[in-house]
Amino acid sequence: MEVILLERVEKLGHIGDVVKVKDGFARNFLLPNKKALRANEANRKVFEANRERIVADNAAKRSEAEKESKSLEGISVTLIRQASNTGQLYGSVAVRDIVETLVADGHKVTKSQVVLDKPIKSIGLFEVKVSLHAEVTVTVKVNVARSPEEAEMQSQGWTWLNDADGKPITPEQLPDSLGLDSFANDQYRGALVFVRDVGYSQDDTSPAFQEFYWGQWLRDQTNSNLRPADFTLTDMASYHTLVGNIGAAMVALSDTTEIANGLDAKALGKLESFGQKAFDALIAPIDSDKPGKLAYAIAYKATL
């Protein structure tokens, strides 16, 4: 069937173009959505008589869509859903769910504008196109997770499980033999376990994934005195020095220093002063009544 386009249609043409399309596409999409007219003599005359108005109306709609696009471009919406341990949803996320979330956030979006080839059936981050106008399309991120905490991890690019190369894995891909010798060591988060109560505190009111945020901060530091790779982590004196350096650097931060994800040092438990007592206790001998955490960890590591 030949039709006259009333607006730009991707991969077909622009306003006024006469194109040949499949009958079903014309009857089910172009004609009912007023994107085209049948290309007969009568409609050609109607189109030419109204071309200026059609072009002007299209320009006005495009302008309105461009304004709305500025509030949508790059945003992320979160949908919390139940899912199995492998990340498969008990159900799915459809266009309706995305539209309802966007509208609830104050955006003007309809079902016909959201381009989703198939329903989302697993947790994760997904890029979804929103076609506000034939010539204005934006991309929004849809964060599907089992909890707000998991959504936060996904938005930061963190995952619950990673292989030795840092690639995400599912529980089914874990090593057959679980134990410390089966996993790679995260030196940054490992060090932060010992820095607790030396440079920062942690309690029931602390933000979720507090150590992940401090770990992100530590990875960004360029001072060699704060890099685990520059210390001998199997030597207690060397590791103890590293912990002291990190703790001192934390305490020296301003309370309002942003650490990660909009959270400042104070919100993440930065201590007002260096935790000398906790620092000294880390290396209490392994055979004492209360062995130090660091002394115990290094002694245990030596047995693996």
In words, what does this structure look like?
With 304 residues, the chain is an alpha+beta fold. It is built from nine helices and eleven strands. The strands form four sheets. The chain has a four-stranded mixed sheet, with helices on both faces. α5 (187-195) packs across α6 and α5 packs across α7. The longest helix has 32 residues, at 41-72. The protein is elongated and about 100 Å long. The relative contact order is 0.08. The mean pLDDT is 85.
Descriptive key words:
four-stranded mixed beta sheet, 11 strands, 9 helices, three-stranded antiparallel beta sheet, 304 residues, 36% helix, alpha+beta
> C-alpha Rg, in Å?
29 Å
Q: What is the 3D form?
A: elongated
Mean pLDDT: 85
Low-confidence stretches: none
Helical segment tally?
9
Indicate the structural class.
Answer: alpha+beta
User: What is the string of SSEs from the N terminus onward?
Assistant: EEHEHEEHEEEEHHHHEEHH
The N- to C-terminal Cα distance equals 74 Å
Work out the helicity level. Answer: 25-40%
Proportion of residues in extended strands: 15-25%
Strand arrangement in the largest pleated sheet: 4-9-8-6
Helix-strand layout with pairing:
Layout: E1 2-5, E2 18-20, H1 23-30, E3 36-38, H2 41-72, E4 76-80, E5 88-93, H3 95-104, E6 114-115, E7 120-122, E8 124-133, E9 136-145, H4 148-155, H5 187-195, H6 210-219, H7 236-251, E10 258-260, E11 263-264, H8 276-281, H9 293-301
Parallel strand pairs: 4-9
Antiparallel strand pairs: 1-2, 1-3, 5-7, 6-8, 8-9, 10-11
